[in-house]
Specification:
By secondary structure, the protein is of the alpha+beta class. The protein folds into three domains: 240 residues, FAD/NAD(P)-binding domain, CATH 3.50.50.60; 102 residues, 2-Layer Sandwich (D-Amino Acid Oxidase, Chain A, domain 2); 124 residues, Glutaredoxin, CATH 3.40.30.120. The protein is built from 13 helices and 24 strands. Strand 23 and strand 24 form a beta hairpin. The two termini are 40 Å apart. The relative contact order is 0.12.
Length: 523
Amino acid sequence: MMRPGSSVAPMSEEIPVLIIGGSLVGLTTAALLGHHGVASLSVERHAGTAIHPRAGHFQLRTMEILRQLGLEDAARETSLRTYHPRGGINAVESLAGRELAVYIADVNEGIEGFSPTHRLFLDQDALEPLLRERALELGATLRNRVEAVGLEQDAEGATVTLRDLEEGTESTVRARYVVAADGNRSPTRNRLGIEMEGYGLLSRSVTIYFRADCGPLLQDRNQGVIYVHNPTLRGFFRLNRTGGKGFLVVNTVGADVTTEEAVNVVDGMDEARARELLATAIGADMPMEVLDVAHWQAEANVATRFAEGRVFLAGDAAHVVPPNGGFGGNTGVQDAHNLAWKLAAVVKGDAGPALLDTYDAERRPLGRMTIEQAYTRYASRVVPERGTDDVEPPIDDLSIEIGTLVHSSAVIPEPGDDGAVIEHPSTSCGRPGSRAPHVPVGDRSTLDLLGDGFVLLVGPDGGDVVVDGVTTHRVDAPGFADAYGIGPAGASLVRPDGIVAWRSARTPDAAEVAAVLDRVLSR
């Protein structure tokens, strides 16, 4: 149906992949598709990249993906201009008051030997321009102030109606596949009739962006995430390195966090109320400037399916978590990493269409695990008075970041596989479905050998294996065979997303590897 004041232009273009949404996850998807040699069009209704510093804690796996895209150094340099490299997570009565708890003393403690990179704090509004530039370099087309207002699928692809929000005109684009990275309210998900399930609405929260000279109040506290617990509010601060600028998230108000009123922070919210809450959280009388107040809903929900036909949900469209634990943006980036190579393989004719069914099979169980773990952290750090009897036990962050396991037809399981979705990376030892372990190879990492296509990593006593579509590396590095669980002459076949697809205790012949590849790629 034509909308008032609009005109519909004839179909003007065709594209292999249309990405609805041009924020963190959409831009990552566009860059990764370009990395794998597939063109995409990303449309975003906003005028540019993020304007607020959201999604500020980037985990090891996300940093490894940025490393693959050539953005690790730029991200690290950008982070250091704003945040301390080894920030922590603690809780205080107020910035001027007592420290109540230390959740994480150092965000990078205990990661040595597990990754060639490290975690960092980086604002989303600083990272997105880097991703945008890289996506453009890799051949993506990015359009802002364009909204998807209609979608129809058939056996060959999808026809999407786009509305230019500046001109008021509409046009259609034909895509073989569509990635919906259009946020937690996802119009695309709603059009497809995909429901969400989980813990529902946790609070109607606000984020107060401000300037104030909080530096002298920080004392020796690490400036990662500072939770605030007092009878007036519950939430957390993110402050820049000087303590002069940042934001305060407020999840509840009042001493009794069990009431409906407590979790409805947006009611009566204006600048005066924001200044009142900010002053209480700071705990000292000082000049302050409220720059903006954003209203949002804290939720812990996951989509009942991540795909419908030729449309795939990614990021907040697929799973919505409270910010506690920093899982939201990171999980979305990893969705993109899992999906992009599969779309590229199918578009280029290197894989059968059934490979795309593995996206839901692999990512939805991890989406469910993520919302559980985010809720556990919300319940224990924000509203512990409600009790934690109904929450899942916490899983350590390192396992969540690089210890996840996937199960689908794109992984060849071994006898005795228990179907677990997570295991500490110190014990997974390169089992099929796990992230390929990091092992130093000179001044590089085994992870630096991965990412462009399928890679066969062969032990130091192994032989050469020549298979079309597979790059073989013989790795003669201390600890490699043990880390990958293959023995000195064994081999590990690793997917483009760094997931171990199959392994052998001996050097396989070319025919065996080719047969495994056909199976993994649904050929």
